[in-house]
Amino acid sequence: MNITTTSTTKRSVVAFAALLAGGLALAGCSSTADAETGTTTTETAAQGESLSIVDPWVKSAESGMSAAFGTIENDSNQDATVVSAATEVSPMIELHETVADASGNMVMQEKDGGFVIPAGGSYELTPGGNHIMLMGLSNPVVAGDEVTFTLELADGSTFDFTAAARDYSGANENYVGDDEGGMDMDGMDMGDDEHADMDH
Ligand SMILES: [Cu+2]
Fold first, then answer.
1. Rounded to whole angstroms, what are the CA distances from 15 to 27, 73, 150, 151?
2. Which of 42, 120, 126, 187 to pair with 34, CA 20 to 30 A apart?
3. pLDDT tens across 7-33, in order?
4. How many CB atoms lie within 10 A of CB 85?
């Protein structure tokens, strides 16, 4: 067995490239972020059963990309780690964070280690911050639509929620060199100065 340390910083464009090049090669997503805490949990409730979400919503969009938001709450005494998400309206979906790059531009990238909802705490998904990124809508999402999401937790349990679609002008996710089409990756540049640009 090879023990290989893969890159720790994985920008969404890189993930994009991996998706395009190798299909759904997202195995790296389920990391061992929690291993370092050393907490040995025995017979505790499934993480997904402890979660709830306040004010879930998803941005309406005709096509291309969108994002889902809300505040996830963890009612248990152990951290819960969301490692992936799924929804029927977008087969390709990622957990994103928003960070400032070296030149101060806000960019989004895949959240390394997933979303960790602290024990007894909450985790906010909000425009301009962490969000569930719908990478390519298979159907238009119209205001008022109810979109179901399934979050998978690190222990393999799941948490489902339904988000109402809203018109929201502020969450315009843009990838550099790519317009509304969203999934056309022509001209995508893997260079540091040309990665995802966004303002949601
Ligand atoms: Cu995003």
1. 11, 28, 21, 19
2. 126
3. 444 444 444 444 444 444 444 444 444
4. 21
